[in-house]
Amino acid sequence: MFTRWQNPLIYSLAFSSGFTIMGIELLGGRILAPFFGSSIHIWGSIITVFMVSLSFGYLLGGKFSTRNASLKRFGIIYLLGGIFILPIALYANEIMQAIFLQIEDSRYGSLLAASALFFLPTVILGMLSPYSVRLLVKNKNESGQVAGILYFVSTLGSALGTITTSFYLVLYLEVNQIIFTFSALLLLLGLIAIAADKIIKNTAISVKEQEVHHV
Amino acid sequence: MFKPALPTLMLLLLAACSPWPGNAEVVHSERSLYRNIMVEDKGDLRCLRFNVKQNKSNQSCLYKSQPQQLVFNYTKLLFSGLMLNSKPGSILIIGLGGGTMSNTLHQLYPKARIENVEIDPAVIKVAREYFGFFENERVTATDQDGRLFIKRALMKKQQYDWIILDAFNGEYIPEHLLTREFLLEAKQLLSDKGILTSNTFSNSGLYAYESATYYDVFGDYFNVRNNKNENRIILTGKQPLPDIQTLGRRLPALDRQLKPFGVDIKEIFAHMTLASQERDWPQDTRVLTDQYSPANLLNIDK
Question: Which sequence ranges form a coiled-coil region, renumbered to this chain (chain A) (predicted)?
Fold first, then answer.
């Protein structure tokens, strides 16, 4: 029965989204440095943009989960996340160059560059947490516990994404290669979620058919 | 008989209580956005330190009685640059420290334009207050990230005869100041006779990567050092390097010029080696780029 695997699957997806978000945030400093330096306000810009986009993501994800929530739609968010982080690798230099030429002050330059590069993908990835809660909660009583486990899993993923990226990945891979890896991971997870959705629905249908047969 | 003994005794007591001449006295300490800054006096010696624990983390020192005399080896080694270009009209110093380099160069070349770039405004303040760092219409200090300053300077089509890169301290390396892209920008900012000196290390896993990167951008360069395990200066320039004989002919004049500052340029010259002749890094060493620059991780890994 695939439904048995549904919850572990959702938790591991939440773990991975936490992992990628923080991995990308950490690379943000490296990406911005050539144009905006490594002054302390660069990190101010990056953290601000990630926090703002995550908060909008939570809001949107919650809203989105109220209508026809399904693993399939959950998977589609992953696919979008995987696609929207690609411009970070593909167009970062052009985007930063344009901003660098327009804005002299590196504080606002870095803030705008961080917004241009990270806002959309982080909003999308932020949508996943509330959406996971929606898929996991089956009754009111367990909602707090489900949210607790979910925060635990996704924040643990964030922590691991941070340490893995900063301690190891940058030693072996280029910044863009890491972004592509994250993108591939998100796309793959999205497809798995969509496939799982299909399998679960099929089993549900065949179970119903069997029941009908018995009667 | 007892009377003279009393003052002597008191003097002895005083000596015991007061710090011994060898002890350092903290004159000033502050925590800036980037680091802990300490100014310490030890007898005649005044030093700027960025870290409390490590003794070797002195950034800049001067003799209070003879501020002209350079204290640090690596500061002296930086003057090897004058062998390639003895009349720099415009100088860019990335990483201020106590500002000794700027002060000395202004004395040597009163007409040269000297621009100091330092990321930490607190360091500039301490340099002014405790190390006699001065600014005037020819000497300026900007608090900005070095990479940014160079990018903006390129846009303004500025040129420098000498770029001094002194932004690394023992504990943290700004990784974006070590990449091929950065070095290309710095090279572009050099005038036709422009030279670049970098104060770096030679005792970690980073050595090979750094060497490969400089070689990739500038071609050949001089390693200037006098102890294999300490600092090394990378000396290179926009033009191909002159041969050793040519350099040798420039020594006597330079020697007279630099003696008053405690720089023995002949000795420095004797320790200069060409990177192409040593090739002391593996052929397949990866070049550091904006995409791949884990300098601080490589620095740990010996």
Answer: none
Residue at token pair 């980037």: B34
In this structure, is the dihedral angle defined by the CA atoms of residues A87, A89, A95 and A99, taken in order, positive or negative? positive
Distance (Å) from the alpha carbon of B151 to chain A's nearest alpha carbon: 8
3-state secondary structure of B95: coil
In chain B, which residue's Cα lies nearest the Cα of A34? Answer: B176
Give how far A44 is from chain B: nearest CA, Å: 12
ipTM metric? 0.89
- CA neighbor of A5 nearest in space, from A195, A207, A143: A195
The Cα–Cα gap between A44 and B171 comes to 22
Q: Is A61 helix (H, G, I), strand (E, B) or coil?
A: helix
Overall domain count for chain A: 1
CB A135 within 8 A of CB A69: yes
B41 carries an active-site annotation = no
CA distance B147 to A48: 23
What pLDDT is stored for residue B236 in this prediction? 96
Q: Tell me, what CATH number does A28's domain have?
A: 1.20.1250.20
pLDDT digits (tens, 9 = 90+) for B288-300: 999 999 998 888 7
C-alpha B17/C-alpha B15 separation (Å) is 5
Of B34, B119, B291, the CB nearest to A175: B291
Low-confidence ranges of chain A (pLDDT < 70): 1-2, 208, 211-215
Give the sign of the dihedral formed by CA A140, CA A141, CA A142, CA A145: positive
Choose, from B166, B216, B243, B284, the residue flagged as catalytic. B166
Residue range(s) defining the domain that contains residue A60: 2-214
pTM: 0.89
Span B86-112, pLDDT tens digits:
899 999 999 999 999 999 999 999 999
